[in-house]
Queue: 2 jobs
Job 1
Amino acid sequence: MTAHKSLVIRVYFTLALAILPLFTYAQEHNEEHSSIEEAEKEFNATEMIMHHIGDAHEWHFFGEGESSVTLPLPVILYTENGLVSFMSSEFHHDTTGHTVVEKDGMRFVNLHEDIYMLEEGAEAVEFDAEHHPVNASKPWDLSITKNVAAMFLTVILMILFFSVGLARHHKKSKQAPKGFNNVLETLVLFVRDEIAIPQIGEKKYMKFMPFLLTVFFFIWITNLMGLLPGAANVTGNIAVTVSLGLFTMLIMIFNGNKDFYKHTFWMPGIPTWVKPILAIVEGLGLLIKPAALMIRLFANITAGHIIILSLIGLIFILENAGIAGVSVPFALFITVLELLVAFLQAFIFTILSALFIGMAVEEHEHH
Amino acid sequence: MELLYVGLAALGAGLAVLGAGVGVGKIGGSAMDAIARQPEASGKIQTAMIIAAALVEGVALFGVVASLLGVLR
């Protein structure tokens, strides 16, 4: 690999690292804000599932309430008075808004994993009739949340596997690598021979290999890590998949050649009055293609997690231990299926990205 | 009212699955036929089949996401 190509890989990595965390917490929480009153002791399946698939400011492993075993992560907030940061452990696992953390004269509460800043003089958060806080506002949240931490873990693994492992081997010797490096090389060649070359073409595929390899392994490794108990649901977070889809869209738009734009906005060979209509349709297609990629990955992974959690939740909803005999084997079956889906979704995302890029750079024969 | 929304969402998810089932079934069936006719092209057919199936599945997942938003409003 030449110096130029490894530089391109580094640029993609840096971009991914720089942009992804900004978006992860931008999504709105759909769950309703319940009041500060005593939490219901009754089992609530929706709440349990949303807790598991949602992002959080601390990495929860097991336990409940004060006795939870968690990994505290840094909370970084951008307020009107500049950046504020503290560890999420200062909230003492409280997400109902009871615990107020005071930093630099500002007060913060954690309300269902949204950090709110209390207005000046306010001692505790107050709610209106619809349980929206009235005396608090949301600052910009740039925290290293559970999902961001999991992404860092994936990135470290990828650097270890590829930069430290495979790339260094190829620098040192011309022999085929052994053991784990051999597995990685097989996968890299799979991406090249089954995805990049057939979709983009012999001539131009090399320029896009760094991107395709990065998304393929990023999605696959995060999907697999998301299946571990207690792990974060990274690719099931719409903000992460939006970022990934955005990369495909930008690469498609910036690499599109003259023919591609001509075929998009002024299709040759059809009556003139149809051309503007088709231009609108094709122009929207530029947006819809990456949007479909994004929804597909997000919904597949989220749906998988919800199914597994629902099956386990069934035992507690019906309050019958006998149900476990049915739902645990079924959950195991779905988990094994998810192992396949983890690979399939990485493959689909990469192959469709390659297909869209291939459409943008394709040389047309002129008739 | 709450139950109505949840019921409609469940119905929507069911309909989405129905459509995707028919779509993916047809794609899989045709791919089987094609492989039976030309076993030597099975690799290429499989790739094309997975892409087409993913596109159909994507539409079904739009339905699932919309239903999810209906429940979680």
Job 2
Amino acid sequence: MDYCNGVQGFINFATSIPRNFTRDGIRCPCRKCQNKKYLHPDVVMMHLLHKGFMENYQCWYAHGEVFVSESERRMEETVVGSTSSASNVHEAANDNTNPYRNMVMDAMRMNQGNGSQCPIVEEEPNADAARFFDLLKDSDEPLWDGCTNHSKLSAVAQVFTIKSDHGLSEAGYDKIIEWARSILPEGNRLKENFYAAKSMMKPLGLGYQKIDMCPNFCMLYYLENAEMTECMTCGHSRYKPRTGRGKTLVAYKKLRYFPITPRLQRLFMSPRTAEHMTWHQAHHAVDGVMVHPSDGEAWKRFNSVHPHFSAESRNVRLGLCTDRFNPFGSFAAPYSCWPVILTVYNLPPGMCMRPEFMFLSIIPGPRSPGWNIDVCLRLLIDELAQLWSSGPLTYDISRKQNFLMRAALMWTINDFPAYGILSGWSTHGKLPCPYCMENNKAFTLANGGKASFFDCHRRFLSLLATSKRFLCWQS
Amino acid sequence: MFGLQSGKQKFPGFGLTHNWVKRSIFFELPYWKTNLLRHNLDVMHIEKNMFENIFNTVMDVKGKTKDNIKARLDIALYCNRKNMELVYDESRVAKPRASFVLEKNAQLLVYKWLKSLRFPDGHASNISRLVNIEDCRLYGMKSHDCHVFMQTLIPLAFRDLLPKGIWDALTEISHFFRDICSSKLNVDHIERLQTNIVETLCKLEMIFPPSFFDSMEHLPIHLPFEAKAGGPVQYRWMYPFERLDITVAM
């Protein structure tokens, strides 16, 4: 009976808005028609009573209830999170709504929608978010009066994409903008140069820190050492000798560090990722079957050792990977660059190892830091320690709450040489195995000259049954 | 202080009682010492290196095989395998063919088979393109090609060409990697893998010369433990990161 009343209410609502009517009638939201057919209201009512509403049609967006139009919804699906790739941008640009606005809306928690099911107390986003409101205003402002398909933000973001995709210089960027402004209508709001555009984009929080370091990887000029001009270990000077009349000092080596906290916070600001960040706890593992790191013993033990941390399922678990690679191809000049990549293990299997959720902070070349890689990791470790002891206040869009987000590093992933560099147990010589440590019987071959693990595996053969089977094979 | 341990200064006992070089910076994280699994062995590289060693040795690839003259000298020193030791004539030294090395005809058979091989789309790169029959070599195998070869092709390629016992052992290694790489792991099954891999490695020890067993051939023995502690391998290996590196380099 309640359902009949509800259907009647829907028909009343739908017919009360003249925009819903076409020549054939109104859209039918029943399970079968799925808003694709236009039918007479009476027929629609029959359909709804017989077949019921289509799934997830709580918000009658096709019948004039919502702020988000249908095409915008489609758009939201195309633009994934804050990392919209170039193809997405083009796809979205063809449609006449503005994906960048959705991006800011997501960031802002402005897309209203289905908040009503949450039983928990809802909160306003914290003060940090205020900067985003400026961006939102920017996004709303059309590029020139009367422009329908571009806002200030979308224009700048797209030119930025082109700049980075094609390695355009700053001067080139400025020239192109100068030209573009000359062909745009009078009074357009396109930012006049790269500097202005960059300061406009800054509140998005995609910044990085530049820190000078000793070219021999001895130390960072950081915190209490920030003012030093010579390395305190090797004595190498910090700056290159000045040439000409230039006043700026140029450091020999700079480390670029991309802070991880704002990027983790952004995962909670987007509705598409926020709800998945608790997947690791929500999923029901079948006993004895592992499909995700959260089913493993290491994860479970971590939970039991740190109950305070595991009590909040939104706390982030990270994995760290570092690997040597040559950005100029294997045949180019020897150049060894060690990108450090963090990945988020909270996410479900389908999202877990996607490039969108890997966060990068590059260690510069051209030489490998070797054992001194710890110097380069200093900033990251400091930030991780900070994230462990007291997390920053973060707004979770899926529950509309502020919470203290903490993070822990679960493990690192490396090839074998890098394993040694990160763990401190050298993987060369006669004791390369970090599990057996000093308990293996590896020896150096008299003629081959290399360490060999020959005859080191018999001691693992403990079971009688195995030995018997083994003897059988031997014969 | 970090980074002070240069190549010359080492802790006493280095290489004899321990292999420590430094105290890792990760121990500054208060929870790090309680982690069960701190660093992952990378299955991708272990599998690739192991495949290359097996394939190059069995196919007797010049310069790459582990069964060289020095290995035969080592056999005389450490093993009791009379039929594999070098034979000294008056004027020359002969290296008798080992049982695990294919004859030239058999090698050609394998390469010809590889040349005609076709895979489903996206399964692996076109391996037939990598075969050079004149040189009897595979050129430009990527890590993922090694992965596919190791898991699916090794048992097929060497079947009936190698003696039964050797083929058994190689097939077991192939199955071990296939099982450990599956996206759904069963805890009981991992325990079985742990006993099996020990057996398999012991078998390989009886087949291949000592120089075959560098650290990469030893590490599979610890992989089942890591799988049990850390869950499926696909979240702990380097394929996704290596792919990301490529996009970064672009």
